[in-house]
Amino acid sequence: MRHRFLKYIFPPLYGLVIYFTIRLLLDSVTGMKFWERKRWGQTSTELVYCILISYIFMWVYQKLFRWFDKRWSSEFSYRRLGYELIWLLVVSLLMQNVFLTTFTAVTDDGAQWYDVVDINVVPTLYILIYYGIMRSRTYLNAYIAGKIQLEKITNDQLQTELKFLKAQYHPHFLFNALNTIYFQMDDNIGEAKKSIEKFSELLRYQLYDQQQTVAVSQEIHYLKNFIELQEVRSSDKLQLTVDFDGKLNGQQVYPLLMLPLVENAFKYVGGAYWINIKAVMNDSGFIFSVENAVPEQSQLPVQRTGGIGLENLRRRLELLYPGKHKLDVGKKDNVFKASLQIEELT
Q1: Which of 47, 95, 160, 247 could be 281's S-S partner, Cβ–Cβ 3.0 to 4.6 Å?
Q2: What contacts 26, CB < 8 A, 6 or more positions away?
Q3: CA nearest 340: which of 318, 170, 332?
Q4: What sections of the chain are H helices per DSSP?
Q5: Residue ending a domain, choose from 133, 151, 169
Q6: Which neighbouring-strand residues pair with 341?
Q7: Does some domain include residue 158?
Q8: Do residues 124 and 219 both lie within one domain?
Q9: 171, 285, 264: which is closest to 277 by C-alpha?
Q10: Of the candidates 112, 131, 144, 146, which has an alpha carbon nearest to the alpha carbon of residue 25?
Q11: What is the mean pLDDT of the chain?
């Protein structure tokens, strides 16, 4: 329907609007009233001529628009806009003078200077309006396509970075776990086998549960296995407290965000040799905290600017929960505390 209207009905309407606008402007200058002319044959000829050439004008403009689209495809830029307008004005002025000025020169009393001005100004203004209406949809589609493409590229880059950051945990974790099992085999083969079983379950989670988010209960189960594996290599004097809120169940969370905090606690624990691990869900959202005793002169990773660990975690949180998380780490007296808050879990 739209195509038929633009092809068959719109051109004569466009031609009549231009004709009547030019005539009214000329009559306001000359004092004539073209609707009172006795030679209706001449008026009819002018009307029919304007209708016929309007089909030519529209055909040329549509060809020109298709050429623009072929040249720039879906690109949108101010350079393209300026280029199209220049071509449109050049073609429009050329056709107006070839078809309209020439016709005016051989009819009525010839082409006066004001005739030439009106013939060039009026159709030019109308073609600019026509161009704006017709091309707005094309430009809007091109703009949206460009935005979608930019978002896709950005998303691909973020996904690549996230995969790289997540992969960094694997060798770090593998080294610690294998080191634990290695020393355990010297003391108790049976316990070493149990550790290997837990280790394989941890690997399975890391290698196969790669969907964007996981149920927080799965993440907690993973952490429990990790903690049990770490306990094996820890001293018997370690006082460990683990408290996971029963409300944490099917809520979705991005995986392996809590692991670095637990890992650091086991790595740097000392002094009074205790670790407290807690996860709760309250009005503030999801809160995961780890506290551990440290020696007075210990060197902790609070100020580290690179490598695997807290800096890696900070970057992942910025990508996954922009503006919706809070990570606080610090040492006070002989206690190191790390707290991760996520505003809400879906």
Answers
A1: 247
A2: 32, 34, 114, 115, 118
A3: 318
A4: 2-4, 10-30, 40-72, 78-95, 102-105, 113-187, 189-208, 216-233, 259-268, 310-320
A5: 151
A6: 287, 326
A7: no
A8: no
A9: 264
A10: 112
A11: 79
- Do strands 239-244 and 274-282 pair parallel, antiparallel, or not at all (unpaired)? parallel
- Tally of domains within the chain: 2
DSSP string, 44-69: HHHHHHHHHHHHHHHHHHHHHHHHHH
Domain housing 302: 188-342
For the stretch 55-109, pLDDT in tens is: 999 999 889 888 888 877 666 677 888 888 899 999 999 998 888 888 877 776 6
pLDDT band (50, 70, 90) for residue 310: confident
Give residue-wise pLDDT tens across range 185-201: 777 787 778 888 877 87
pLDDT of 267-297, one tens digit each? 888 889 999 999 999 888 899 999 999 987 6
Identify the DSSP state of 276: E
Enter the tokens of residue 147. Answer: 């935005």
For residue 308, is it within any domain? Answer: yes
What angle (nearest 5°) sits at the alpha carbon of residue 125, between those of residues 124 and 130? 95
Angle between helices 259-268 and 113-187 in degrees, nearest 10: 40
